[in-house]
Amino acid sequence: MAKQSVGLKLGTWRGINRSLLVLGTLCFFILVATFSKFYSFRSLLIANDTYCNQEKNSQTQIQVQKNLQIVIQKIQREIQEIQNSPTTESSLKHHSFLADILGLIESVQESLPEIQEVSHLDSPINETYYGHFLGCKQRSVEPGEYFLIEEIRKYVKMKPNRLGKQNFMAANGTFTSIGHACFAMKRELEEYMDYDIGEICNDDWKLAQKLMVHGCDPLPRRRCFSRAPQLYDKPFHINESMWKLPNDRNVRWNQYRCKNFTCLASNTTRKGFFKCANCFDLANHEMPRWVQQANTSDNAADFVAHQVLDIKPGEIRIGLDFSVGTGTFAARMREFNVTVVTATINFGAPFSEMISLRGLVPLYLTINQRLPFFDNTLDMIHTTRFLDGWIDFVLLDFVLYDWDRVLRPGGLLWIDSFFCLKEDLDDYLESFKMLRYKKHKWVIVPKLDKDDREVFFSAVLEKPPRPFR
């Protein structure tokens, strides 16, 4: 009986030792893996080019936490079983051994939340704000650290509220924005933001427009004063400024071929722009537009203003003209008590300056940017000489859907003399048809000024009501 009792104890002792050995080995590997992950995260914060995949790092942290919790639970169960069993010298040693391991693991577990706080690089705000722009070697805690010019760094950095609580917009700070392509045009943007605070800005509108056209849109604000005309004169009275050439004293540019408005209005001078060669000639070229048709046939590409407005009498009050020009469409609509904002940029000529001196509102906006209007607010959108056969089909889709967003139900989309190659016509027409608007006017006519390879497309379409689902 004694030998059997000794054998039983020996077997039990071997079983306990085997389980302890397995458990100790498991704890050892867990500790090694945990500490290696810990130092990997530390190295990530010290050298920003160690890891690029934030989501993977976050998942690794979660997995380490889960594994540690499992090991802690197993050790606690083992300690509980030892406590419930008869007390011996060996069991006390094993209990002490497991308690030491448990304390080490719990200390590692407590350090993991600190890693998560330090690695706030993984926060949704930072991921959305700049995570897609910077490569592994350029990643840093603040997006402004990517640039060298201090003004950019100050502008991009989040500005916390002074009172330390949410403002009326339910935000704890102000997040100033720049276009995503600004990170790819670092040199140009740093040149644009290199100025003396409180002084006159550099004459760099061409650089600014280049940045905007290439996707660095919106541009950052600047803390310098914009250049004004050297010999400024007050504009003409509103009753005459619409159709009168502005005073040359209000010229503020020096990088165009024409140095004054008289030159711009001359048909014999090389102006350096092509989309609107005669649109500064108010008396001869602009005055008849949208009141007289260039072609009196039934298939004219241009429509008369009152014909379009009569489609929705009294309903067209505010609108947007997205075109290249000097604001003549907005001037004409004003005669019908319709307020129109003109969106354009200075393609080779001072279009924005001309529009404002006529007493109209220029919206300096590229095709890259989402329209700064709320949903379902405009009565009409008009476009001419801008959306033509050069535009990519996918880009046209994004533009048209954005126009649909700001156009109210029952509002009018006026496509004015859109021209393209004959072989591309069907594809472009499909882009307009996908809106599923009601067709009030729809014409396709040959474009005869060059050859017979191009056609004009014009239409007046009505946005249908789309009830909530």
Structure description:
By secondary structure, this protein is an alpha/beta fold. Strands 5-4-3-6-7-9-8 form a 7-stranded mixed β-sheet. The chain has a two-stranded antiparallel sheet with strand order 1-2. The model is unreliable at 6-10, 36-52 and 114-141 (pLDDT under 50). It has helices at residues 2-46, 54-84, 89-118, 124-131, 150-156, 186-192, 205-213, 238-241, 261-265, 282-286, 305-309, 328-334, 351-357, 393-406, 425-433, and strands at residues 159-160, 173-174, 318-322, 339-344, 361-364, 378-384, 407-421, 438-446, 454-462. It has 15 helices and 9 strands. Among the domains are: 150-214, no CATH class; 238-463, Rossmann fold, CATH 3.40.50. Strand 8 (438-446) and strand 9 (454-462) form a beta hairpin. The radius of gyration is 35 Å and the shape is elongated.
Total beta strands:
9
CATH topology of the domain at 238-463: Rossmann fold
Strand content: 5-15%
- CA distance, first residue to last residue: 84 Å
CATH architecture of the domain at 238-463: 3-Layer(aba) Sandwich
Name the CATH homologous superfamily of the domain at 238-463: Vaccinia Virus protein VP39
SSE string, helices as H and strands as E: HHHHHEEHHHHHHEHEHEEHEHEE
Average pLDDT level: 79
Query: Radius of gyration from the CA trace?
Result: 35 Å
Subcellular location: Endomembrane system; Membrane
GO molecular function, one term: methyltransferase activity
Pfam families: Methyltransf_29 (PF03141)
InterPro entries: Prob_Methyltransferase, Put_SAM_MeTrfase, SAM-dependent_MTases_sf
